[in-house]
Amino acid sequence: MEARNRNLDEWYGKIKRSEIKLPRFQRFEAWDRHRICSLNEMVIHNLPLGITLVLEVGDQEKFVSRFLSTAPERVGGRVFEHLLDGQQRLTALWRTFHNNYENETYFIYFKEFDRYEGDIDREDLSVFCRSRYYDKRGDRYPLWCDSPPQCLERGMIPTDLLRPEDIQNEIDNWIDAATKPIEPNEGKEELSQFYNFKKQVSDRIKDVRSIVANYNLPYLSLPSCTEKTVALNVFINMNTNSKPLSTYDIIVAEVESAMEQSIHDLEADLNRKYPEIIRYSPLSDQILTTSALLQGNLPNQRGSWDMDKRRMVENWDKMENGLHRMAIFLESQGIYDKQRLPTNAVLAVIAALYAYIPESGDKMGQDELLLKKYLWYAFFTERYENSAATHAFADFNALKRIILSECKLDGSNYGIEDVPIFSEQGLAEVEELITADWPKRATIRGRGVLAVACRLGAHDFASGKQLNADNIEGRHYHHIYPDALLKGAGINSFLAMNCALIDDKTNTVIGRKDPKQYLIDRYKWTTETIVSERLQSHLIPIKELETGGYENLSDLEKNIKLAANFEAFTRRRAELVLKAAKLLAEGRQLSASEIYSE
Asked: Mind listing the domains of the chain with CATH numbers?
């Protein structure tokens, strides 16, 4: 490895001629405007930025590559270097030299040219970023950013005038336009002052341009004979991004090193084909955990590291199909997104098992019945509270043996009693459900309670609309017993048993009314039967909800009565939820009428 100097003029030329590219495993742009401004200030003040890392390219590129964002894409041109570290810096410099960010424009501030009264105090030779936006007609605001006279009046010189190439005509034209409004019509002295001012502007731009062009951005160079694995390890160890590389980042790099195939492309294609998958967890996490299980590894970081990266790509279609079918299955069970998913430990297990489940027929129905039992057991046992990956791995292997009709040593088939989640865990008790936490918080039991209501349709109280994947984002977590009412009595209102997922407008209408008053108001405009059906779809016990009458009681009497009413309500609802959970854990279809039948 050899350290070398290179000025920005040369870096710029290499990017412009498409001679330098990025390995595809590199992240995309990540810097915000503050880091971009800071970077440019370091350059114009000729302060060091650190060192970059390149891999020389011989006859063939070692890695699948891409061009820097917005850089010319000269297809068929000779690539001389791969940029292993320094992407964010060089991309930010390239883009500010062209001022081609969609939502912001960058300037260098010259205090001596600032004549704008409404301006705030800034340091000379500082970098300024102005946010941009479009109106209905398509005009880009604020308009002054594209007006040379108004820019100069504010002491702002656009950064695209600093790009290190021969653009003197462009600079002269900008200065002419910027100074046109102040050009005097007559007077020798006035004209002399005017041309001196123009020269002053030109000289200041020229001075900064010289600093930029000659700015030294040193780099370390790996020779073209460097092995892929060595270059990859150097890239990982030298990564200077403020966000550390994730397991996925490194595995992407390893796959591209071994297979010359872009995981980013495969991932993007998967997301285009099946956008519903990402509703449940980041796509990269699901790819890794499912791929690990398909290779017989733990669905965690360790298992991902241990994977055969070549087999990961070979199994891609199997993994992709499994994730797609998993998302369809979860939606059929009333689980629509990650905010309502009790535990993500089930995702990889179900997706990987679909690799062994037929696409249709009786066998598919039999296997999906097993998945239903597994899913609801996972939501109402302690199985995945701790060591989730280890437990998921054991459950997956046992479920897989059942699906594949494998035999034990005694010749009998594996059955449900051989699956740890069924044999080692019992469903939650009523007392546990009563204390289950508010489902907006990431607790398995609290979200499990909500999942049952979602499975029943969770009809909106006012409109009667059934919950589905399209309207779930518009639902709010509503306190059945109002928060203000319970808080006044010192009672915790943030319990799963006191939560219903209803439409935001309905939630606003309900406000702080107590349950009894709310029911009375609703009965005024609809039938008792309809209201009962809507409440029952949330497994809300109506008899225990029809309480109230606190108006003429002392504070002590009110608090005692409210506590007793709320305890009776949460206990009865917990009994209903548990009955539903048991039916679901048996693989049964679910209806509110059956649950309320007793």
From this structure: 2-97+215-228 (3.90.1530), 99-205 (no CATH), 246-423 (no CATH), 430-596 (no CATH)
